[in-house]
């Protein structure tokens, strides 16, 4: 028998919002169309769409940078020379690592899969970029400063803290498991910040050897 409910849905988003009153939910009909064990995406709100929009734009932007390092003008060889010139040697190794990390972190954030880990990739990449290339130019992006790096890193950490939302693979795959607890909230924030900074600082300590300044 079809069950109809006009009461507000009991499920809530990570932000604590509930469904609007008066929404009619044909529970049995909707549920019958879903395979057993499929998460019920009840009460998808503007919050979830907003997080989705932010994830996709940030993620695809980062992935595009990785793609450009592989296949843009000059290709991987040109990217390797750029890394050598800034003091990240061997340049070919760092070109591959940076391009691969940008694509993996970007796509991972876009689809919301293990979100704190792609967010950590953002932090690591942007920390290294800010320190090696943009730090000497000050804050503002119009002067090639580190403003853009900060915005990308902080936005990714914020997503790790709030969670990827219901329109994500995290929710679809891990919602019913204990892993989901670690993919948002304080756990997500700490994983993104600590893992990201550890990766970035470790890379600088091991590999970064800034070129000597030319006299005169």
Helix % is 55-70%
C-alpha end-to-end distance: 87 Å
| Structural Rg | 21 Å
Q: How much is the average pLDDT?
A: 85
Number of strands: 2
Global outline: elongated
Roughly what fraction of the amino acids lie in strands? Answer: under 5%
Contiguous runs where pLDDT drops below 50 for at least 5 residues: 1-31
Major sheet description = 2 strands, antiparallel
How would you characterize this protein structure?
The chain is mainly alpha-helical and 216 residues long. The chain has one domain. It is built from 8 helices and 2 strands. It has a two-stranded antiparallel ribbon with strand order 1-2. It is elongated and about 55 Å long. The N terminus is likely disordered.
List keywords for this structure.
single chain, 216 residues, mainly alpha, 8 helices, 60% helix, 2% strand, disordered N terminus
Fold blueprint:
Elements: E1 4-5, E2 25-26, H1 27-32, H2 46-71, H3 75-86, H4 91-111, H5 116-134, H6 147-162, H7 169-174, H8 185-207
Antiparallel strand pairs: 1-2
Brief rundown of the structure:
The N and C termini lie far apart (87 Å). This protein has helices at 27-32, 46-71, 75-86, 91-111, 116-134, 147-162, 169-174, 185-207, and strands spanning 4-5, 25-26.
